[in-house]
């Protein structure tokens, strides 16, 4: 089973993109709306805008957080959303994730009130 395709303005094999490309920006996220992996929400929004029929971004409801929707750019294995929210490094290869991504979590995940 190969690693899933990552769409958007990807810069390198670790899924860094033109928007977020620090040492630790190695995570791609699958979007609930189109089930495609993008490095960040800006990549998703820009790609969608250029499609013939643009679609609205849908965030993951908590009921679906068991979905494998996080791709580690270091080892290209997937984590579930609930797992990703518990860890600060990849549970497969131990690569460190950017803790700053948590500031954007509400753009991807429907957080409980
Ligand atoms: Zn989408
Ligand atoms: Zn991006
Ligand atoms: Zn990994």
Account of the protein in words:
It comes from Cryobacterium ruanii. The structure is a single chain. The protein is α+β, with helices and mostly antiparallel strands and 113 residues long. It has one domain (27-107). Helices cover 13% and strands 12% of the residues. It has two helices and four strands. It has helices at residues 41-49, 81-86, and strands at 27-30, 37-38, 68-72, 78-80. The chain has a four-stranded antiparallel sheet. A hairpin with a 6-residue loop joins strand 1 and strand 2 (37-38). The chain starts with 26 loop residues before the first strand and ends in a 27-residue tail after the last helix.
The helix/strand series, from N terminus to C terminus, equals: EEHEEH
Give the strand line-up of the largest sheet. Answer: 2-1-3-4
Counted up, domains total 1
Shape: globular
Query: Which small-molecule species are bound to the chains here?
Result: zinc ion
What's the N-to-C terminus distance? 37 Å
Gyration radius (Cα, Å) is: 13 Å
Tally of extended strands? 4
Structural class: alpha+beta
The number of helices is 2
The main pleated sheet reads as:
4 strands, antiparallel
Report the average pLDDT across residues: 93
How helical, in percent, are the residues? 10-25%
Low-confidence parts: none
